[in-house]
Each structure stands twice: as structure tokens, then as C-alpha cells.
Amino acid sequence: MRNKLSNMIWGLIFIVIGVGIAGNVLLGWNFRIFFDGWWTLFIIIPCLISIIRSGITVGASSGLIIGVMLLVSHYININIDWWKLIIPVILIIIGLNIMFQGLFRKPLKVNHAGHVEGQNNTRAKEYSAIFASNKISVNDRFTGTILNAIFGGITLDLRDAIIDSDVEIAATAVFGGMDIYVPRGVTVKVNNIPIFGGVSDKTVRTTDPSAYTIYLNSTTMFGGIDIK
Q1: For the chain, what is the domain count?
Q2: How far apart are the first and last CA of the chain?
Q3: Which of 3, 45, 73, 140 has the lowest tally of Cβ within 10 angstroms?
Q4: Per the domain annotation, does 104 fall within a domain?
Q5: Mean pLDDT of all residues in 136-160
Q6: Taking the mean position of all CA atoms in its chain, how far away is CA 29?
Q7: What are phi and psi of 205, to 5 degrees?
Q8: Mean pLDDT lowest among 32-46, 95-109, 121-135
């Protein structure tokens, strides 16, 4: 359901743009794509969709608030250096996330429509890289995770992880990249929304019908994800 809703949002965005451009041509509308601060939508929209798909997380909510702040700065004349507010905003969101962890997050359900309905990874950990890099190595039981790379990079190493069930990785890469290393003997299935980005799956396919599956549900905008 969450994937369908996010796909509907992307679809509506492209429909609105198409109708606006057609209106300019046929009806003389004054529809403009490149308004002041238009580039902030490349931060706001993917983060909003990530929240819809995976619930409120530190990375997605930080990106959303930062994007909105930068957009508002183009229309409200306040003597504030908005860029200097980015770090305190992130710290506040992290603090709220620690206090109310799990209250707003939606449980992850692997639903490939593709997804296996009923997988409930409420214990999935979240990792973010915002204007930074983050390297994660898992050497115990892996139950899924949420990844957010916004103007940053994440490396997730699962080669020594214990995977004893189907799991989901929910990922958002905005002007950033991710490298995901998976162990041998698992199946990888990708459900990605690419906006000037994409996912490259370089894993060796397994022929074992009983192999567990890693489902990657992702949004990539001016960014990419490599699965190795």
C-alpha cells in the first residue's frame, strides 16, 4: 500500500508537469517549472516519499525539513543564515527520534508485488549519511534496515551477516550513493523509483529455490545504489 501511494505521488507530479507544459502551449498558461528554489524539490520529494514508505526516520525527516527551510528562504526575507541551522535541526530530530523511537515509524512489511506479505521488521535499524559518509558492517543476525544517503554515502556490508529469513532494505539516495555487499546464497529483488539515478545489481544469481530473499525498496534521485 505504501509503495502504491508513493508511486501515485510520483505519477501525479509528472502528470501535473505535463499538463502545465501543455497548457502553456495550447492555452497560454504561465506555468513555470523553474521557480525560485525549484531545486529544493529534489530534496523534499524523495524524503517525503521515504517517510510515506518507511515512516518517520531521522534521515528522511531531516532532509525534508532542510529542503523546506531552503525553499522558504527564497520567499521569506528573514536575516537568517539558513545553512547554519542545518546541524541544530538534525540534532533536534535525532533527540526526538531517541525519545519517541518506534512511535511514528511504520513497521516494515516485505511486499513485493511482488513482496512477501507479512514480514514485520519492527526492529530494523536506521542508518543515515547527511553531508557525510557512513560504513556499517553486520556480523550477527540481520533483520532488515533503513538507509538514507542525502549528499553523502553509505556502505553496508552484509557478507558476514546471518540471514535466516526474508528481509527488507528500505533505501533513499538523494545526491548520494550506497554500496551494499550481500552474502552468497541469497536472492536479491529490487523495487526502485529512479529519478536521474538507479540501482546496479552485480550479485551472482543463486539457483537454490529455498534461498532467502533480500528485498530492496528504494528511491534514487541524482544518486545510485550498487549491490555487490
Answers
A1: 2
A2: 29
A3: 140
A4: no
A5: 92
A6: 34
A7: -70, 135
A8: 95-109
